[in-house]
Structures are given as C-alpha cells and as structure tokens.
Design goal:
The protein is of the alpha+beta class. The protein contains three helices and nine strands. Helices cover 29% and strands 30% of the residues. It has a five-stranded mixed sheet with strand order 5-8-9-7-6, with helices on one face. A four-stranded antiparallel sheet has the order 1-2-3-4, with no helix packed on it. A hairpin with a 2-residue loop joins β8 and β9.
Length: 171
Amino acid sequence: MACRPEHSPYLVPASTITGMVYTHTQHGRWHYLFYTFIVATLVGAFLARSQPPVVAMNLAVAAILALCGLSFGSLMISDEGDRLVLRFGPLPLVRKTIRYADITFVEVGRTSILNGWGMHYTPFRGWTYNVWGFACVKLTLGRKIIRVGTDDADELAKVIREKMGRSGPSE
C-alpha cells in the first residue's frame, strides 16, 4: 500500500506549526562508489568460491559496504515544530535532532574538502552532516558548531531564523 504524503512519518501537518513547514531531501552521489565496490567484492567471492574463508570475507565486506551505501545515500532535513531533524537514508539508521532553542547563530556558508562528506567531527571545525556538494548552513549552539550540507541553504537558513524568532546574517 502506498503511503500518501499527508500520512508520511517524515512530514509534519501544517496545522501543528506556526509559520513555515520545511522538508528537503538532498541525494548524494558517493554511495554509487560503494555499489561499485559491492559488485567487485561479489565477483571476487564468486571467483574464490572454492575457498570458503575468502568468500566469507568478501561477503562480509559487501554487506558492510551495502549498509554504508544505503545509510548515507541521502540527507533529509525537516522542521518538526521546535526542532530541526537530520536523517540520513534511504535506510534511516542515523538521525540528529537540533532544538531551535539551542541555536545561537545561523549563517549560510560553504564546507571544504577538510570538512568532507558524511557525518563526522573535525577538530576546531565542529560536526558536519553532508552527502554532496559544499553549500551548507552553519549552526552555532553556544561553543558547538554544526554544518548541515544542503543544496537549499538559503531557504533552510530562512526557516531556522524564523523558528529562532530573530534574523541573523547570511553570506
């Protein structure tokens, strides 16, 4: 049975939020590299079928790569009332929730190669949640920095500022 948009667990009914409702999914491209390696390891397992330990190792590597590819193929950012929710997918194993009340500053920015892609911490630069590209919204939560990669940075920053109840600078 198909899920109608108004019954999706990822959408918040407009009547429960004052102001804007925001949901955006950015699709990355790095997961295709995982899929290429999965095919290569499965071919390796087939070619080494007479050596069970090699087959087992190749299948384990293929399973780990599949899990990574399915977990980090996209990043959905959604406004859920008093918080911003980040979900990697399409297999939704990784989720981050940021309360608007905790955000002290928001600006549109850019990540660099040093920030990379995925979900990780870089010393002196903070946390990065990104699947593709360099556009981001940089959130400051006290002394903590979170960079949220998106191909819709201006609109996301606008929504966050409205939810914070004040305006901030934009680059």
